[in-house]
Every structure is written in C-alpha cells, then in structure tokens.
C-alpha cells in the first residue's frame, strides 16, 4: 500500500482539545430557542390558547371574590398559567421523540456533544418557554384587569414556573419512551386530563368525592395547590408537597433511566 | 501530522444480530492519508463495520483503534467525522442554522461559510432543511463533517438516492476538498466511484474482506483474461511459472490460466503442449466484483 505521510502544508493544526461542558453552548441554546419560537403549533398551544381560555372562562367571573376577598379571575389566571407552563415544558421535552425519530440524536453522536449537555439544553429551553408561557398568561390577566399584591404575582408565578420542571422531565420521559414524530398530538389530550384533575380548569372541590380523592394523587395537583397558595392564603398541605416531590422523582428518574438506555452502545 | 499511528486499526471484529453474523472476524489497517473504498453488495456488513469504527456500536469481539485512540475520543476531539447512511437532520432548521448549531458543539471548527462553500451549498444556506432535496441534505451532512477539519472522514454510501448529476456534484465537492493528510474511508456499491476516487479498494462480502489492494491491483484481478484449454495431465507448476500468469487452476482435464498476456499463453499452450480447444475470455471489473462478492471463495 502506498500510504502518504505528507504533512498538511499550509494548514494550521486544528485545536483538538475537548469542548468545555461536554459541548453545551449558549449559541446552540439560542438556536434551539429560536426554533421553538418559530413553531406555530407550540406557540398556539402554550401562549395563545391559555390566554384565550382566560378571556373565555376567567373574565366572565370578574367581580366575584374568593373567601379571602381576592378576585376569582386571579385564581383562574394562575391555574391557566400553570397549565400553559406545563404544556410548554412538556412539548420541549417531548420534542426529543421527534429528534430520535428523525435520527438527529444519531447525528449528534458524531459530534463532541455529550448526551447530558443535550438534555441540559433541552431542559433550559423547556424552562425558558415555560417562563414565557407564565409571563404571557399573567400579562393577559393584568391587561384584562386582574389586580393582586405584587408578592402574589411573584410567588405564584415562580411556583407555576418551577413546578413545570416536573413536566419538562415528563416530556423527556415520553420523548425517550416513544420515538414518534407527532408525540405532542398524543400527549396533548393526556395533559388536558391531568390539568383537569389538578384543578386547573375547575377547582378540584367541584369534582365528585371519589374523583377528588383520585385527583390528589395525579401529577398536576401539587403544583396547582402550590401556585395558588400565595393567592388563596390557604396553607400548603403536606399532601401537595409530597405529590410534587414524588412526581418530580418519578419523571426525573424515569427520564434518566430511559435516557441511559437510549445512549447505551449496542 | 506528528502521529505515527495508523488512522484505523480494526482487529478481529465480529458483530452478530441474532442469527445473522453481520461482521465476521474483520481486520483492517488504514494508514494516514489513504483514501479507501469499502466496496460490497447489500448486507455485506459495511454499515455495521462503520458503526463500530465510529463507536456507535460495540463489537461482540475484536478491537477498534482510531488515530491511536478510542472512537469516542476521536469523535469528541473532532479528529473523525462522518456522513452516515442513516442519521437525520432537523427539518425545521435552515441549512445555515444546522451548520451553526453543530459548530457550537466543538471546541474549534472551520468557519461555517467555508464549509458551506466547500460542500457547494452556500446558495441554499437560508433554506429550511425540510425543503432541501436528498442530494442537498447529503451535502449538508458533508458540510457538517467538514466543520472540525477531521483527520479521518468516513462516508457511508454518501451518494445513495442521488441522480447521476447529484452523484457527480457530490464527488466533485469531496474531491475539491481532498487535501493531503486527510484519510477518507467510504462505503459504496458503485465500482465506478471506488475506481474514480479511492487509492485502495477493500472488497467485503458476508462480513469478511475478500480482496484488498490498490485500485490498480484490484483492477488487475479483473482486467486480465482467462485462457481455458483441454490438457490432460497439465503441469500446473510449470504453467504458473510462465511470465504474465496470475493463477492456474486445473479442473479434471481442463486447465484455466488467468493472465495479463493471453496471447503468449495461448501460443505456449498450442505450440509447446498437447492442449486443444483453447478459449480466451476476458473479465471486467464488474465480473471480478461479482465473482469476489457473490461466489463462495475457497479461502
Ligand atoms: N440492527 C440490526 N438488527 C438486525 N440485523 C442487522 C442490524 N443491522 C444490520 N443487520 C444485518 O447485518 C447484515 C449487514 O448489514 P449492514 O447494514 O452492515 O450491510 P451493508 O454492507 O451496509 O449493506 P448496504 O449496502 O445495504 O447498506 C445484514 O444482513 C443486515 O440485515
Ligand atoms: Mg450500509
């Protein structure tokens, strides 16, 4: 065999060090965000629909008050902000399913990007869209006349946003479970049912007794209670906290396991 | 390059999928700077071998060294890059964004504009990937592979699904980019591609290497002719010692001589021996390929 041993004349030797942070880069994150914001479907379901829901179901209750005198519209607005955030984070996490179906994850394995850095990018993208969803819902509420103390805006907003981390994990979990291109079409209705049980569309108290019992064990219940607590002034029940923590663990650990299975070499 | 490691060292690779042995004890060494064609029919094990070479799958037995290290390390350092047969692109990104995004995963890359230019897709940089033709997407994959300025470039049937013009454009892009020092390994079904672009051809069949040599050597396997004659009691060794003889085979009363100089052999057989019924047949590269990749070889 005639092997050429010539050097690369005129070409500076490339920098062969490993990338910092396993290839995690703000630049790639920026493109991911741009991608998400370009997706009309995602925007319709996370930014527009919850806002419209508020105008339809919240506004007509203007003038009514909760037991502590705060407006019912705020209760509806916060619930829908939780809903918007959970749909947002689920859809970004679930997009992993699409990327696996398309074979993009395989393409990524030919780059220095470490799988953990990829997941970190997805989580940050999910949480960014989740934050945007909460802010937009609150803006719609504020413009429509919802008035509550500043600490309620802040704490409820934070709780809705941070709680949606559970659903970012849920999205990743589903994404690694099923490599399907249209995964959100399947999860969308599931999210609506979970939101129902979580008291995001109607208060859990109006559900029949049995369903109320069931509801406390469903994944949205905890974050719903937490997000509304600053408004209602009701204490946060132990059940709600346990609910949130347990579901965060279930989805987080589930996603991590599937992720590990996916990235294992066969 | 200061390194003296071979670009690729595959040693006794085996990989099975259930009852199917896709790769069966394959060993191969590729030196830096070689352009090697991996030629074989469907199911020969080319993709399975390339997957192991890139660290995308683990061999059942055997070892893989890429540029003196593990495949994972070579990938992470941008020393090896690949254009795969499968492996998708995000349909909702533009061509330019795909390159930009991928560049962020490396510590250091060539400028995006340069790789787009070299892959010949500068004019479609703003186009959404979902609206690019198969050939354009393939050239985008090629652009992505150029980003880290790899020492080793692996391509798995890069022109599959392209029309004649697309194939020509793709190879032109690859050739334009060819520079000394970069090792290239590509899998293909097409003899003409192997012939036109590789310095070395490795023929694979059923997970094994059935021939390995320079393009000229492989062509030689085929370019010669076969002289057949009826010659009871032929002296195989004496015939094999004649100038220009590549191989001699005796089958009963028949003798088959593979040679680059069929005239001289025919003359010899007719004038110096009792041979009769002399026939001369020629083989082309296609025949050699078929013979080597489909027939059961004794070895
Ligand atoms: N994941 C898999 N599961 C089961 N069998 C597989 C798998 N991958 C490959 N095979 C089998 O292994 C053999 C080699 O396949 P491989 O894809 O490596 O061939 P190839 O030379 O790349 O073929 P082609 O030219 O069609 O791309 C085939 O018989 C194939 O069916
Ligand atoms: Mg193949």
Q: What this model shows, in words?
A:
The complex is a heterodimer of chains A (266) and B (299). Chain A has 266 residues and is an all-alpha fold. Chain A has one domain. Helix content of chain A is 69%, strand content 0%. In chain A, helix 2 packs parallel to helix 5, helix 5 crosses helix 7 and helix 6 packs antiparallel against helix 10. The two termini of chain A are 33 Å apart. Chain B has 299 residues and is of the alpha/beta class. Chain B folds into two domains: 212 residues, Rossmann fold; 58 residues, Alpha-Beta Plaits. Chain B has a six-stranded mixed sheet, with helices on both faces. The chains are: A mainly alpha (266), B alpha/beta (299). The interface between A and B is large, with 41 and 47 residues. The complex binds adenosine-5'-triphosphate (ATP) and magnesium ion. The site of adenosine-5'-triphosphate has 14 residues of chain B, from strand 2 and helix 1.
